[in-house]
Each structure stands twice: as C-alpha cells, then as structure tokens.
Design a protein that fits this description.
Blueprint (H helix, E strand, L loop, with lengths): L2 E8 L7 E8 L4 E5 L6 H8 L7 E6 L2 E2 L9 E4 L3 H5 L6 H7 L13 H13 L15 H13 L5 E5 L7 H16 L3 E5 L3 H7 L2 E6 L2 E7 H6 L1 H6 L1
Parallel strand pairs: 3-8, 3-9, 6-7, 7-8
Antiparallel strand pairs: 1-2, 1-4, 4-5, 9-10
Helix pairs in contact: 3-5
Bound molecules: adenosine-5'-diphosphate (ADP) and magnesium ion (MG).
Adenosine-5'-diphosphate binds next to helix 1.
C-alpha cells in the first residue's frame, strides 16, 4: 500500500473541507479523483504532497505516518496551472527540470554528475531538447505543463500527484498528456490524477475515486464506475 488515509479531516479555518475521508492507494494504481468544484480534490492532493497538515485522522505513506515520513523525494506533485507560477520566473527549461533534483535543498546546491545525467534523460524522454534553453515563461501552456511534469519526474518518484493536468490544454495536447501519463504509469509509477474532465478520467485511469463535499462517495474500477446506473444518476 502506497497511501493509506484514515478518517482524514481538514479545515482552512471555518468549516470542514475534508471530512472523515478514508482511502487506500496501492502500488501501481492509476487513480482518477473526480467530483464537482469545491469537493476538496485539490486540498486532498496538498495534504498528500505534504504541503498541508491533517487536522484530523491519519495519512500513512509507504506504511509510515506522515509526520515521520522523510523520503519526500519519492513523492512527485504537479500543482494546477504550473504555467502561472513560472510566468515571472526568467529561468530556462533545463534549469526548471534540474530544480526537481534539489529535494528541499537550495537553488545554489551543487548538481552531481548523476543529477545531470538524470536531467538529460528526462529532457530526452519528454522531447524537450529543442526547448531546453528557452525561458520557461516564453512557452505555451501545453509546453509548460510538459516541463512541470518533467520536473516532478526528475527525482524518479514512486508516486506522483497531478492536479488538473489538462486544464490549460486543447484537445490535441490532451491526447499528448494522455500518452505521457500512460507512459509514466507503464514504468510502474503510482499515479493520482485530479481532473474535472470525465472523458479524460475514463480513458486514462484504471480506478476512479468520486468525491463530494469532502468525502469519498464512491470508488471502483473505472470502466465499472462509468457504466454503472448509479453514476448515470450522479451525472
Ligand atoms: P476542488 O479541487 O475539488 O475544486 P478545493 O480543494 O480546491 O476543491 O476546495 C475545496 C473547498 O476549500 C472550497 O470550498 C474552496 O473554496 C476551499 N478552499 C480551497 N483552498 C482554500 C484556501 N487556500 N483557503 C480557504 N479556503 C480554501
Ligand atoms: Mg481543484
């Protein structure tokens, strides 16, 4: 089991955003987290990525309580709209991807030969070679999404969380994203993708977690979920 969540509760100040949420994610799972706006999907990812702390309940990562967990370089996280965060940040694509190798370190930490080789490898795999020396802010939304994912993968994470990876993309790019994510999953990486795009969720994932008002309402095999009469009612 990669992630085990028990009775998780979270509040930003007033009112429970996540409430009594329990969920297990197994090694090699490809999970799509779906549900209406405001259901708490992004909040759940922030808790899983270690950015927020649970107010109630427990999160275990690789069998370890979150508070004692230290191997954060094994966890990849691609927040929503990475493009927006990069706009005013005048560094190159290669530098952005390289930052992925500095887990919690400073920007001025030295890169090893191994780091450089890993960055070369990922730049190659994501067809970013021709963009490597361009400034990140000059790229299209789709290209920036690709760079953000490359950066998250640069540490070779065992599990990776994506928040709305297709939100900035047109149809053609969405197909590319599909290929890209399936490719990462094929290497054995555990995948958790938050998306409001139900067609995308259905085609890319193996398992669906349906959230509503801070809880998991339903979870199950993707094809079964989308063909069940109950789902038809919810939609
Ligand atoms: P989803 O990703 O499913 O749309 P979110 O996790 O973004 O849901 O938001 C869940 C609820 O938490 C919403 O009501 C939202 O307004 C609230 N919320 C999200 N982020 C913050 C924040 N930083 N401060 C206060 N409230 C927030
Ligand atoms: Mg969200």
């Amino acid at each position: 089991t990669v992630i085990e969540i028990e009775k998780l509760g979270y509040s930003y100040g007033e009112g429970w955003i996540l409430n009594d949420l329990s969920l297990k994610i197994e090694q090699g799972d490809f999970v799509a987290v779906i549900g209406p706006n405001g259901a708490g999907k992004s909040t759940l990812l922030r808790l899983l990525a270690g950015i927020l702390k649970p107010a109630q309940g427990r999160i275990a990562i690789f069998g370890q309580d979150r508070e004692n967990f230290t191997a954060w370089d094994k966890i990849g996280y691609v927040p929503q709209n990475p493009a927006r965060q990069h706009r005013a940040f005048p560094i190159s694509v290669r530098e952005v991807v390289s930052l992925g190798r500095l887990s919690g370190g400073s920007m001025f930490q030295h890169y090893t030969h191994e780091d450089k080789a890993a960055v070369d490898d990922i730049i190659e795999r994501f067809s970013l070679k021709e963009l490597a020396h361009r400034k990140i802010g000059e790229l299209s939304g789709g290209q920036q999404q690709r760079v953000a994912i490359a950066r998250a993968l640069a540490t070779d994470p065992a599990v990776i969380y994506f928040d709305e990876p297709t939100s900035a993309l047109d149809a053609e790019w969405t197909d590319d994203m599909h290929e890209l994510l399936r490719g990462v999953a094929a290497q054995g990486t555990t995948m958790v993708v938050v998306t409001h795009a139900l067609d995308f969720a259905r085609s890319v994932s193996d398992r669906v977690v349906f959230m509503e008002a801070g809880r998991v309402v339903e979870t199950g095999d993707t094809e079964t979920f989308f063909t069940s009469p109950k789902t038809a009612r919810t939609r």
